[in-house]
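Quick one:
INPUT:
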C-alpha cells in the first residue's frame, strides 16, 4: 500500500473536525473516496477493523458498573425504547414499501425487523466525545445516557452471538467459572505497571481469554471481549487501562470506518433510502424524552439525555455487517446504514451545540410534563447556610474539608456526584450532599443561599473544574473561588475564567515532602552547611 493513501482519511477527518463534525464522518468519506479513485479493497484493514470492534467492547466492559444497569430508568428506558423503535421502524418501512419509495419493497419481514433493530442503536463514540467536550460526562444526564448506551451495546453483543447460527459447544458452560479467576487476573493487572505492559495486558485479555477462548467454544468473540472487560472492571486500575487503550481503539476504528466506505459508492436509490429513514431520527429522540420523563427526571435531564442519544450508531453498522455475513441482508444496506450514521451526525452535532438554547425554548412548553415527585437524584438541593463549599470530595477534597473545618467548624459543605462517596462521608460525620457542579441543571435545582463566601473546585478532572467555574460565574454567586490544578496551562485557563486563586497539587506535594524531610532531619543537618 502506498503510505500516501493515509493522507486521504487524515485530511478528510481534519476537514470534518474543522466544521464541527466527528472525524469518523471523514473516515467514512475517505473509504468512499478511495473506492471512487479505483483503489482496490485494502485487505489488511479487515483484521484491524475486527480488532477495533473487540477493543471497543472490551473498553465498554471495563467501564461497566453492573449496579448502574440495574436502575430501572436505565434498563427500562433502553429496553422499552428498543422495542418501540423496532416496531415503529417496521411500520414505517412497510408503509414506504407500499408507496414504492427507495429500496424498501425488496425487504422481507425478517429483514425489516433486522433493519429496525440496527436503527434502534445510538452512537457510543459520538455520545462520549460530546459529553467529554462539554464536561458533562459525570453529570446525571450524561451518566444516564451512557448507561442506556451500554444496555444497547449488550443487546448488540447478544445479537452478534446469536447471529452465528450454530449452537455453542458444551464446553461453553465451563466459561461460567471465569469469575473464579478474577483474583488471579487482578494480581496480573496490578503487576503490569503503568506503561506498555499494562497496554499489552489489556490486549492479551481481550484477545486470548476473551475473543479466542469464546470463539473456541462456539461463542461470538465479541462477547468474550465484553465479558473480560466486565471481569476486570472492579479493579482500581481498570480506568487507567481503559485510558491506555483509548488511542489504540480509536486508531483501529479508523480502519473499521474505512472498510465500510470501501463497500462501494452509494447509488442514488441508496441515498434516497437513507434520507427517507432519517425521518425516524426525531421520532427516536421524542421516545427517549417521553420515557425519561416517565421515569420522573426533570425536563432538562430528560432533554439533554435524549439529545445525546438522538443519532444512529456505529453499532448499527456492526449489526448490519453481521447480518450481511449471514446472508440476512444484501451488502447495499451497509452503505445505506453508513450514510444514515453520517447524516445523523451531521444533524446531531449542531443540535448539541445549541442544546441550552433549545432547552430554554422547550421549558415553558413542556414543563407541565414533569412528573412529581421527581427522581431521587433530580430533587431540589438544599445546602443550608454553609460558608464554604467544596466540589469534589475525593482524597484532595476530603483533606481540604478537614483542614477548613478546623478553622470554620460546621460551616463547610462537600458536594460530589457519586452516591457512594456521599454515604462514606456521612459515616465519617462530614456534611456532604449529592450534586454535580458540571451539570448546569444543578444550579437550577440549588435552593438559593447567600451564606457562601468561598467555593473550592477540587474535582479530579480539569475540564470538570473549568466547566463548573464557567457555570458558577454565570450564576448569581459573587464570592471567592479557588481550584486545584496540575499543569501551568490549567492554571492559566482557570485564572482567565475568573477563578481568584489556584493550588498546584504537584507543586504543593513537593513542598510538603521537603518540609516533612526537613522536620525529620537532625538539627545539625537541617542547619545551613559550611563550605
Amino acid at each position: 500500500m502506498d503510505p500516501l493513501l493515509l493522507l486521504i482519511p487524515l485530511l478528510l477527518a481534519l476537514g470534518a473536525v474543522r466544521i464541527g463534525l466527528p472525524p469518523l464522518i471523514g473516515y467514512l468519506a475517505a473509504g468512499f473516496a478511495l473506492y471512487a479513485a479505483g483503489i482496490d479493497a485494502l485487505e489488511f484493514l479487515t483484521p484491524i477493523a475486527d480488532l477495533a470492534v473487540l477493543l471497543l467492547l472490551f473498553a465498554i466492559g471495563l467501564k461497566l458498573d453492573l449496579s448502574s444497569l440495574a436502575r430501572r430508568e436505565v434498563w427500562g428506558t433502553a429496553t422499552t425504547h428498543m422495542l418501540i423503535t423496532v416496531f415503529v421502524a417496521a411500520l414505517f418501512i412497510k408503509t414506504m414499501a407500499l408507496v414504492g419509495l427507495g429500496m424498501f419493497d425488496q425487504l422481507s419481514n425478517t429483514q425489516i425487523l433486522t433493519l429496525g433493530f440496527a436503527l434502534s442503536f445510538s452512537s457510543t463514540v459520538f455520545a462520549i466525545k460530546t459529553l467529554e467536550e462539554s464536561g458533562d460526562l459525570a453529570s446525571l444526564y450524561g451518566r444516564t445516557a451512557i448507561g442506556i448506551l451500554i444496555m444497547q451495546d449488550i443487546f448488540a453483543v447478544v445479537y452478534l452471538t446469536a447471529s452465528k447460527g450454530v449452537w455453542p459447544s458444551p464446553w461453553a458452560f465451563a466459561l461460567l467459572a471465569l469469575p473464579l479467576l478474577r483474583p488471579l487476573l487482578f494480581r496480573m493487572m496490578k503487576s503490569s505497571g503503568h506503561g506498555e505492559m499494562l497496554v499489552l495486558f489489556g490486549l492479551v485479555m481481550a484477545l486470548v481469554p476473551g475473543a479466542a477462548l469464546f470463539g473456541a467454544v462456539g461463542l461470538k468473540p465479541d462477547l468474550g471481549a465484553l465479558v473480560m472487560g466486565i471481569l476486570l472492571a472492579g479493579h482500581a486500575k481498570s480506568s487507567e487501562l481503559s485510558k491506555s487503550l483509548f488511542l489504540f481503539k480509536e486508531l483501529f476504528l479508523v480502519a473499521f470506518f474505512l472498510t465500510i466506505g470501501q463497500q462501494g459508492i452509494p447509488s442514488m436509490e441508496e441515498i434516497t433510502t437513507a434520507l427517507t429513514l432519517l425521518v425516524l431520527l426525531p421520532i427516536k429522540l421524542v421516545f427517549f424524552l417521553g420515557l425519561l420523563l416517565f421515569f420522573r427526571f426533570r425536563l432538562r435531564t430528560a432533554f439533554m439525555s435524549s439529545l445525546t442519544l438522538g443519532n444512529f450508531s456505529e453499532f448499527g453498522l456492526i449489526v448490519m455487517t453481521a447480518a450481511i455475513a449471514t446472508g440476512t441482508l444484501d451488502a447495499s444496506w451497509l452503505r445505506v446504514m453508513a450514510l444514515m450514521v453520517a447524516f445523523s451526525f451531521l444533524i446531531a452535532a449542531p443540535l448539541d451545540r445549541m442544546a441550552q438554547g433549545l432547552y430554554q425554548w422547550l421549558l415553558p412548553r413542556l414543563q407541565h410534563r414533569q412528573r412529581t415527585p421527581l427522581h431521587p437524584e433530580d430533587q431540589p438541593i438544599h445546602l443550608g447556610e454553609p460558608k464554604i463549599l467544596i466540589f469534589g470530595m475525593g482524597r484532595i477534597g476530603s483533606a481540604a474539608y478537614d483542614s477548613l473545618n478546623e478553622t470554620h467548624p460546621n460551616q463547610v459543605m462537600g458536594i460530589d456526584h457519586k452516591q457512594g462517596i456521599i454515604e462514606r462521608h456521612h459515616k465519617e460525620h462530614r456534611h456532604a450532599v449529592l450534586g454535580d457542579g458540571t451539570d448546569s441543571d444543578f444550579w437550577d435545582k440549588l435552593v438559593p443561599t447567600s451564606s457562601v463566601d468561598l467555593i473550592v473546585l477540587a474535582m479530579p478532572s480539569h475540564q470538570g473544574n473549568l466547566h463548573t467555574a464557567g457555570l458558577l460565574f454565570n450564576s448569581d454567586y459573587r464570592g471567592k473561588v479557588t481550584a486545584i490544578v496540575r499543569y501551568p496551562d490549567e492554571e492559566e485557563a482557570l485564572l482567565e475564567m475568573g477563578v481568584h486563586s489556584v493550588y498546584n497539587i504537584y507543586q504543593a506535594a513537593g513542598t510538603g515532602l521537603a518540609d516533612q524531610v526537613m522536620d525529620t532531619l537532625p538539627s545539625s543537618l537541617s542547619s545551613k552547611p559550611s563550605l
